[in-house]
């Protein structure tokens, strides 16, 4: 029915297609293998009355794993808000007083007293984002995150 040449070409095409599919299916898993073990610890954001949140802008890369501490010294009831930043992250977990929370999303954090929250995340979209103390206007009352693609 089919010539040997046509059958051979068809089988070669099928083998090539299957090999390509297997390669593509395994590549992301292989590329991300160990991703959560290769984290970069960022300088903490400090919540303290009259002090800057961060010393300098944070330079991040989309697709890399980071961890950052948000530390409040208890000098004043303070929080941070950053919906644009948080919505462009995959958040693995937020650790508060040794309790691990795995949220679907995050908008803000508020500290009524001294404490620490650790956020473990992967930026998923490039851009420049801010996290700031609510209702504040000063440059020292915000932390800037520059996420490169």
Shape: elongated
Helices and strands: which structural class? alpha/beta
Helicity level, as a percent range?
A: 10-25%
Strand content: 35-45%
Supply the CATH superfamily name of the largest domain.
Answer: Cupredoxins -  blue copper proteins
Could you tell me the CATH topology label of the largest domain. Immunoglobulin-like
Record keyword descriptors for this entry.
three-stranded mixed beta sheet, alpha/beta, 149 residues, Immunoglobulin-like
SSE blueprint:
Elements: H1 4-32, E1 39-41, E2 45-47, E3 58-61, E4 65-72, E5 78-81, H2 83-86, E6 89-96, E7 99-101, E8 108-111, E9 115-123, E10 127-132, E11 142-148
Parallel strand pairs: 1-4, 2-4, 3-11
Antiparallel strand pairs: 4-9, 5-8, 6-7, 6-9, 10-11
How would you sum up this structure, described in words?
With 149 residues, the chain is α/β, with parallel strands linked by helices. It folds into 2 domains: 4-33; 36-148, Cupredoxins -  blue copper proteins (Immunoglobulin-like). It contains 2 helices and 11 strands, in the order αβββββαββββββ. The chain has helices at residues 4-32, 83-86; strands at residues 39-41, 45-47, 58-61, 65-72, 78-81, 89-96, 99-101, 108-111, 115-123, 127-132, 142-148. The strands form 3 sheets. Strands 1, 2, 4, 6, 7 and 9 form a 6-stranded mixed β-sheet that branches. A 3-stranded mixed β-sheet has the order 3-11-10. Strand 6 and strand 7 (99-101) form a beta hairpin. The longest helix has 29 residues, at 4-32. The model is unreliable at 13-27 (pLDDT under 50).
């Amino acid at each position: 029915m089919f010539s040997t040449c046509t059958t051979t070409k068809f089988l070669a095409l099928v083998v090539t297609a299957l090999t390509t599919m297997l390669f593509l299916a395994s590549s992301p898993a292989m590329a991300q293998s160990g991703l959560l073990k290769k984290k970069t610890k960022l300088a903490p954001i400090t919540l303290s009355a009259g002090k800057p949140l961060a010393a300098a802008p944070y330079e991040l890369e989309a697709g890399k794993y980071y961890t950052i501490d948000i530390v409040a010294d208890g000098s004043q009831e303070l929080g941070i808000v950053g919906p644009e930043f948080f919505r462009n992250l995959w958040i693995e977990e937020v650790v508060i007083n040794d309790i691990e929370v795995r949220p679907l999303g995050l908008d803000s954090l508020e500290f009524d007293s001294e404490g620490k929250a650790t956020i473990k995340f992967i930026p998923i979209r490039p851009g420049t984002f801010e996290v700031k103390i609510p209702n504040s206007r000063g440059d020292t009352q915000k932390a800037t995150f520059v996420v490169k693609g």
